[in-house]
Amino acid sequence: xxxxxxxxxxxxxxxxxxxxxxxxxxxxxxxxxxxxxxxxxxxxxxxxxxxxxxxxxxxxxxxxxxxxxxxxxxxxxxxxxxxxxxxxxxxxxxxxxxxxxxxxxxxxxxxxxxxxxxxxxxxxxxxxxxxxxxxxxxxxxxxxxxxxxxxxxxxxxxxxxxxxxxxxxxxxxxxxxxxxxxxxxxxxxxxxxxxxxxxxxxxxxxxxxxxxxxxxxxxxxxxxxxxxxxxxxxxxxxxxxxxxxxxxxxxxxxxxx
Length: 257
Fold this sequence. Notes:
Layout: E1 5-14, E2 17-27, E3 32-37, H1 43-50, E4 58-63, E5 66-68, H2 73-78, E6 81-84, H3 96-100, H4 111-114, H5 121-134, H6 152-166, E7 170-174, H7 182-197, E8 202-205, H8 209-215, E9 218-223, E10 226-231, H9 238-246
Parallel strand pairs: 3-8, 3-9, 6-7, 7-8
Antiparallel strand pairs: 1-2, 1-4, 4-5, 9-10
Helix pairs in contact: 5-6, 6-7
């Protein structure tokens, strides 16, 4: 089976620091791929390199078997890759609905939208409300309230709902449950399974091992700026995964660093 998203020999340097050292990455159709690694291992940089947020110094990125060059996250988004970064790309002063549709606003049908460029706010508000309801995050009373008035968990929920709503080929989630409570985290995991059931592959970056082992089909372990190995969660334990990513143990077929 051909990967839907692939990175080959990715290199990214920041001065004398090598964040990616000839790293490889493959995401296959319909799967949930978890990416784990210690802090500073380079996993977020690798994800940014395949989603347009970082331009690698060396290496190649392929989407559906075709080489692509993303110069910005907008390029990746236009290609069908939606990403929720740890830093949450949200505009605090705008409303929830405006943040959901930032850069892809809906126009009113007919003359009003085509020539006067008026926004169809009712349609955008309904869509945003429906998506947040699916995620179980409608503790938010007013879909028009500014994002800056939301809690950290609610902001994360809006970002995840936006990615799930618009990701047509790949959804990438960077620590999606880090700022969420138990109930909201459970909703996000259910959403991941729902998105997967629709045939959209997901990349999940997380330090939460129970979440990783619950939803992942494969686990990519990143260590020292490159991929160490890929393991099957059905054949390995959480202790194995932690040992590999910290260097306490070496997986079969991999030389000790």
